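Changelog note: in this version the structure field was regenerated for every chain. One regenerated record is shown below for reference.
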Amino acid sequence: MSRATVAIAVVFVGAIVCFANDWIYAHYSTLAKETGDFSIDPAGDLFVAAPFALIAILVLVGGFGFPAAALTTALLALVTSAAYYGAWTGGTSTSALALLLPWELGIPGTLVIYVGDRSGRRWHRGTPSSAA
């Protein structure tokens, strides 16, 4: 499987996770039923899905390993789903701030896993990290 295929799949998964969560909560949450607002925001969903693009970029140009990228994508999908849950089920005016969670946790978490992946593969090959 090529790096481009994996990168496209990661971005696709990110967009689908965001669109699906937004659609589900817009149609089935108590907040949507109370307000009568059943609309979704595709541009906002793409904004929330942007941290998935970091994974795709690291796969394409940074040499992010496929298993680590898959793990990171799954963890980011869980964080993103939790963010949508918090935004749609919270009862306060600031509940929408939960949608920043994928940015606040996803980007640093992705970078930590990337560094761990690169260091682990370097160590496994026998090349110390300081020699790179």
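Spot check on this record: Helices lie at 3-28, 30-35, 42-61, 66-89, 101-125. The CA atoms of residues 15 and 115 lie 25 Å apart.
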